[in-house]
Amino acid sequence: MHEAPMFDLSPRLGFDAELLLRAQPVRVLLLDVDGVLTPGDLLVGADGEQLKRFSTLDGHGLKLLASCGVRAAVVSGRDSPALRARLRELGLLDHAVLGRSHKLAGAQGVLRELGVEWEQAAVIGDDWPDLPLLVRARLAACPPQSHPEVLARVHYRTRAAAGQGAVRELCDLLLCAQGAYAALLEQAVRGE
Hints:
The chain has eight helices and eight strands. It is an alpha/beta fold and 192 residues long.
C-alpha cells in the first residue's frame, strides 16, 4: 500500500494578537484603487486610454476573503474601463463606488447596502481622500508608501507595496482573525 506524503501544513504568517482582536468583527473590506490595488501609476495612452497594473496576489486574497464571509467593496476617486474589467473579473463591480473624489457618502451607501456598520469595516487607503473612511473604520490599513497623514492614522501598515500584494497581506490578516487562514492553507497545500 502506498502512503500519502506528509506535508507541512503549519501557517508561516503571524500577526500581533491585539491587531487580530481588532480585526475579528470585520465583515467588509473597503478598498481604494490607485496606490492600493495598483502601484498608483497612471498609464495614459495617446488616445486617453488608461491602463492599470493589478497584482494577482491581491485578486486571490480577495477571493479567499469572500470564501470566509467577508465582503470586499471598492471606493475609488477614478473610473476607467480597465478598472471595471478587473472588478468584474473579481466579482466586485456590484458594490463599487467609482469616480467620486469625496468618498464618504459612497462608502456609507455601500455599508448600508451590505447591512454593516463602521465597527464591522476594514479600510485600506493611501492618501487624503481615504482619510474620512480610515478614521471611521474598525481596522484602518495602508501600504508603506502612503501619505504621512495616512500613515499616522492607521492601525496597520502592510509590508508589501501597493499593487504588489498589500491587499493580499490585509486579506491574510483578516483571514487569520476570522480563524479561516489555517484551513484554507491546508486545502491549498493538499490541492483541494
